[in-house]
Write a structure and sequence with these properties.
heterodimer, A: 338 residues, alpha/beta, Rossmann fold, Cytidine Deaminase, domain 2, five-stranded mixed beta sheet, 16 strands, 25% strand, B: 459 residues, MutS, DNA mismatch repair protein, Chain A, domain 3, 2 domains, six-stranded mixed beta sheet, four-stranded mixed beta sheet, 49% helix, elongated
Chain lengths: 338, 459
């Protein structure tokens, strides 16, 4: 059974799509179905607003998630009422309300379908993941990456991730491969030195320099986005820079225009914080600059969807081979392996 | 007058209310509905309850966390209860809320019963739980259980088969039937719950009251507060070792101490004088706070207290005229005095606290206003404290003076930071109408420009 065994060793897994309609929900359904064959208790939720039966952007049919007898699921009050499953409410969460009401935690009594919704932000998602694990004793929680945006950061709080890509990203296979590979490279960024990560992980937003003795210095810049308003030399302590916040073009541009770019290292909290244009990041790295992360995501597999919402259909085998050649990670067409 | 109306009028009092360690999210809105109470029986009854809990906390501090763990899980189900009353058919989420509330309420009741005390009327909600828990699990979870109806159980059995057979049409049809059946049962449950709204509301009231009383008892214990004796309307209000926790706390941060004050207030006005920085304003605020605390059923920060209840507390202080913006400070003040006059004329037994009355007008007329106010309050037997810097106040009345600056040891330079240590804030009765003239001395001690002080002295 492809990649299911790889999932079992983690407590949480996020499934994120590179674009809308890249087959994320199919991947989720496949995973939930296969997990029935293993003695592990499963919970499933989402991040952000989701769950229309029809995709609001492209008007394509959005599949509901199939939940099996005994699984736990979390969704909003409104979507809970629309469920097509018999389920027992076990909790209502007051801390993470969405536009569609509070979140309901329920346990399936038989097999059926629900639409998922979840906490609106990573902070509350993290809290929910903890609660599911400790209060409801679930071995594995799967987070539907919702509106197909990496930026929502679900991978940042889950132990492992699956990336869904497909014709919706581009109908040109080469471009699809390039875009996917770029994201793959970001996910694969190396983790910074372990003892350093320990020190960096709880720092508040701002900009920090790390000197050659691994000492951390606050550069007193509120965030990397405010870089242009600072007059002081941010490299006065050393060439390694860390920010827990968003990394945009301006910070990387500043690094890549320095002499000896190869001596500079940029540390991000996790790969979802890298908002700079792919070209900017690529140029920086090609000039020898290094990027590492504090929290590394474990990518388990990539899934592909050959259908594009605009009506194109790519050759699944060609697509898979092209990706497999470019990326060293298992690639699956979920519809084919089911 | 409810607590929500007075809550923001006095920071020292607000501090004490905010300091309450309220556990349940539903308690806060009820807390703000606490009435300003002039009924000694009611206040003494509240105090008896607080004292009972206070003694339990003294013996066993753990009781607070036992209750706290349960109380903090209580949720607001007012909306759901209203729906039951309106004959609305409740959904699973609402039924879950009712069930988990009732189970939790019974758990809190168990802790309460284990204490063997009688301070709230706490109904047993087991009968309500029974309705929503046909399988007798006593676990806070809910769905329309199979045990409600054999028919429903049979439909669900068929659904399982249809799902296993991948017979989509059949499954859809059965899910529809399941929904219809479930709705029937929910309608019956909602109807049955109607009779239980009253005990549930009683339980909510018990939980809220217990939460507030526990918080007040815990505050009394942590902050060393005292139960005041409630004395008759004509008796003096008196405090021994009265202190202001908000200011004491701020001083503590600077490693300073709040000097507790002893004061007795008869059913007559009293004029209070004292040098600048001698704490007259703080005294007035602290007395107002203690009176509010008493009438809202809190213990008070003093080592001993007797309080005579009033109908209203009239405070006239600089920061109190927020709602009179647009008026000059004199206009705001005199209108406030006028309000007090009309209250007193209407027979309201008020505690009147006025800080530096008529300071913003000329001393000649200012003194007249002070004298007249004292005269008016005296004639109406109103308990009041009026501070002033004016000398020669002609009206013969009781006078208190803050002792003020003590002798300063040699080698000590006074600064704005250490001056408090050399002020004696205690009060003495005086029988002349001199006021301390220490403004320039204090200015000098504070390091104000020497030439300027000389200029003042020669002026």
């Amino acid at each position: 059974m492809p990649f299911i065994e790889g999932i079992l060793k983690y407590n949480s897994l996020s499934i994120v799509g590179l674009e809308k309609n890249t087959g994320k929900t199919e991947c989720l359904n496949y995973t939930l179905k296969r997990l029935q064959n293993y003695p592990c208790s499963v919970a499933v939720t989402s991040i952000g607003i989701d769950g229309e039966t029809v995709d609001q952007v492209y008007k394509t049919q959005k599949p509901e998630v199939t939940i099996y007898d005994g699984d736990i699921f979390v969704t909003s009050e409104k979507l809970y009422r629309q469920k097509r499953i018999t389920a027992k409410i076990i909790d209502i969460l007051n801390y993470a309300s969405t536009a569609m009401g509070r979140l309901v935690v329920a346990k399936a009594i038989n097999t059926g379908k629900v639409m998922l919704s979840g906490p609106p932000d990573t902070h509350n998602l993290k809290r929910l993941l903890n609660e599911i694990k400790n209060k409801y004793n679930c071995d594995l929680t799967i987070v539907d990456g919702a509106l197909s945006r990496l930026s929502l950061g679900a991978p940042a709080v889950t132990d492992a991730m699956i990336l869904a890509t497909g014709a919706a990203v581009s109908i040109n296979i080469q471009e699809l491969v390039n875009k996917t590979k770029f994201v793959f490279n970001m996910i694969s960024l190396p983790q910074a030195d372990e003892s350093l990560c320990e020190k960096l992980k709880d720092l508040p937003n701002g900009l920090y320099a790390i000197d050659t003795d691994n000492e951390i210095h606050d550069l007193h810049v509120k965030s990397a986005l405010m870089l242009n308003s600072t007059t002081s030399d941010i490299f006065r302590y050393g060439h390694t820079i860390y920010t827990p916040g968003i990394i945009s073009d301006s910070l990387i541009n500043k690094l890549k225009t320095q002499k000896n770019t190869e001596s500079f290292t940029l540390i991000a909290k996790d790969f979802t914080r890298l908002f700079a244009a792919p070209e900017t990041i690529s140029t920086f790295m090609r000039k020898g600059g290094k990027i590492s992360v504090v929290e590394k995501s474990n990518l388990i597999a990539i899934t592909i969807n050959p259908f594009s919402p605009s009506g194109y259909f790519l050759n699944s085998d060609k697509m898979r081979d092209a990706l497999s050649n470019a990326i060293n990670i298992p690639v699956y067409d979920i519809k084919r392996i089911q | 007058m409810l607590l929500r109306n007075t809550y923001n009028t006095l920071p020292s009092f607000k501090y004490m209310v905010d300091n309450l360690n309220i556990q349940s999210p539903i308690t806060l809105k009820h807390l703000l509905d606490t009435p300003f109470c002039s009924d000694s029986t009611y206040i003494n009854d509240t105090y008896d309850k607080i004292e009972t809990l206070f003694n339990i906390i003294k013996r066993n501090n753990k009781i607070i966390s036992d209750f706290g763990m349960k109380l903090c899980q209580v949720r607001d189900i007012d909306g759901t209860l209203a729906n039951i009353g309106n004959n609305t058919i409740l959904g699973d989420i609402e039924l879950f809320e009712v069930k988990s509330f009732c189970i939790l309420s019974n758990e809190i009741r168990n802790i309460y019963n284990s204490l063997n005390i009688a301070i709230v009327n706490f109904p047993n909600l087991s009968e309500t739980v029974e309705i929503l828990d046909p399988d007798h699990t006593n676990i806070p979870s809910f769905y329309v259980y199979d045990s409600y109806s054999e028919e429903l159980a049979a439909i669900r059995k068929k659904i399982r088969i249809a799902v296993a057979d991948k017979d989509r049409d059949k499954e859809e049809q059965l899910r529809f039937e399941e929904g219809v059946k479930e709705d029937e049962i929910r309608a019956v449950l909602s109807q049955k719950l109607k009779q239980h709204v009253k005990p549930i509301r009683e339980a909510i009231n018990a939980i809220v009251e217990l939460d507030i009383l526990l918080a007040k008892a815990e505050q009394a214990f942590d902050r060393n507060l005292t139960r005041p004796d409630i004395v008759g309307t004509d008796n003096p209000t008196s405090f021994v070792g009265l202190f202001n926790p908000m200011i004491a706390c701020a001083l503590e941060e600077k490693a300073l101490k709040f000097q507790p004050i002893d004061i007795t207030l008869y059913k007559k006005p009293c004029l209070i004088t004292g040098a600048n920085m001698s704490g007259k304003t703080v005294l007035l605020k602290t007395i107002a706070m203690a009176q509010y605390l008493t009438q809202y059923g809190f213990f008070v920060p003093a080592s001993k207290a007797s309080v005579s209840l009033v109908d209203a507390i009239a405070i006239c202080m600089d920061e109190n005229d927020n709602d009179m913006k647009g008026l000059s400070s004199f206009a705001a003040e005199i209108l406030k005095v006028n309000e007090i006059v009309s209250q007193v004329n209407n027979g309201i037994n008020a505690l009147v606290l006025i800080d530096e009355l008529a300071r913003t007008t000329n001393p000649v007329e200012g003194k007249k206003i002070v004298s007249a106010t004292l005269n008016f309050l005296d004639r109406h037997n109103i308990r009041g404290l009026i501070s002033s810097h004016y000398s020669d106040i002609s009206y013969p009345t009781r006078r208190l003076r803050v002792k003020g600056l003590t002798s300063i040891p040699k080698g000590v330079t006074l600064t704005i930071n250490n001056i408090n240590m050399y002020i004696d804030y205690s009060l003495t009765e005086i029988y002349d109408d001199d006021v301390p003239q220490e403004a320039l001395r204090i200015a000098e001690l504070l390091g104000v420009d020497k030439e300027f002080i000389k200029l003042c002295e020669d002026s």
